[in-house]
Amino acid sequence: IGNGAFFECKELKSIIIPQNVEVVGEHAFYKCYTLSMVELPSTIKIIKKDAFMWCISLTSVKVPEGTEEICDRAFRYCSELNELDLPPSVQGIGKGAFDECDSLTKVTLPLIADACNHFRNHASLAALTFLPSPDDGLLQAEPLEGNTLLHRCVPNEQHPLIHIADILKECPNAIQQRNTLGQTPLHLCVSNNMNVEVTKVIYDAWPEAVSARNELNKTPLDYWRENGGDEVIGNIIGAEASKTTIVTAFLLKKDKNAIIVDDDPILLRGHHLLLEVLKDHNDKIYTNYGRRVEFGKLFLEQLHSRNML
């Protein structure tokens, strides 16, 4: 159907688009104010931008399997649209494709990376359902950062918990998928200080993720410590047993040899490394009128040089 084919046909009430049509062109049904029923053929591949914009009488749309793309603003201002079914073949949804569809109550979506973003501001929405993943329980990852729909939902408080729970229900293997930085959903959850409810759902779906390392060689536990070690979150992810133990403090004056003061365990990535740093850099590790100098920086450098960070 060509661009603007039914532009502002304000008396058009229904249409059955015949088979073999693959594209609904730009502005094809723009401002068809009385259009309330559209039947799309199984051959449709693309619904172009603004195609059904301002079809204010349209109440439901069933996009057929085989449709690959719904472009920008395709259904914007369809204010009476209350039910929408998108098939798993849809690979992309354009910007504002369903904006101002203020009557939407039920939406069925494929598990693609940005699916939720198009419906997070719809106050009328009562049910958002995800289709099962056709790819062995794995989610599609967007090409640049490798984030899946679950990666995007987890650190974003605008997405209700029910979205995350339903993704995990339909695609349980998604919890183990990593983005290009090697981050699991739990990495993003903990590093972004997500709330208790989200953290528990993500942790319970795959508890072993607490020891998974990303490209920076960091685990979710490392991020938990960096963020201050919140006790409630720590209890959820089993971090209590992994907290850094209180250790012997070394307070050295310049040119003094490093010694183990007592038998307390040194758990700063192993006391051998700690003593090595003290030995090699003793000229820089001392206090001068109570001022701490250099040690923390040196120790981190040594950890990094050994790929321990």
Automatic annotation (TrEMBL):
Pfam families: LRR_5. Coiled coil: none annotated. Gene3D superfamilies: Ankyrin repeat-containing domain, Ribonuclease Inhibitor. PANTHER family: IG-LIKE DOMAIN-CONTAINING PROTEIN, SURFACE ANTIGEN. This is Uncharacterized protein.
